[in-house]
Design brief:
The protein is built from three helices and no strands. The chain has one domain. 68% of the residues lie in helices and 0% in strands. The termini are far apart. InterPro entries: PhaG_MnhG_YufB. Keywords: Membrane, Transmembrane, Transmembrane helix. This is Monovalent cation/H(+) antiporter subunit G.
């Protein structure tokens, strides 16, 4: 059981590292948000699962409920953050055309000084 816990902790730390690198390296807010929420959610869930399986801390139902809460709420929060970034006029890099043009009202991008 301890081997599985260590594997989950290692995988979780790897996903959290990937999320952190993505937040630093990706060019626009939507891509950064995607990296932080997708890899961050999976990494956090794996880390929490590893701690629960290790038996070092008696978490039980609290850990399971925390994991379910993370998996249910972080994707919704990410969608709302992405929508807010789009509507506020954040620059979109790497797209040839705006896929939401005409669907959502979008502010003008800020003028670079």
């Amino acid at each position: 059981m301890i081997v599985i816990a260590m594997l989950l902790l290692t995988l979780g730390a790897g996903f959290l590292l990937i999320a952190a690198i993505g937040v630093i390296r990706l060019p626009d807010p939507l891509q950064r948000m995607h990296s932080a929420t997708k890899a961050g959610t999976l990494g956090t869930a794996l880390m929490l699962g590893g701690v629960m399986l290790s038996g070092v801390v008696e978490i039980g139902w609290t850990g399971l409920l925390a994991m379910v809460f993370l998996l249910l709420t972080l994707p919704v929060g990410a969608q709302l953050l992405g929508r807010a970034a789009y509507v506020s006029g954040a620059p979109l890099e790497g797209l040839e055309s705006d896929p939401l043009e005409g669907e959502l009202e979008r502010a003008k991008p800020p003028i670079e000084a």
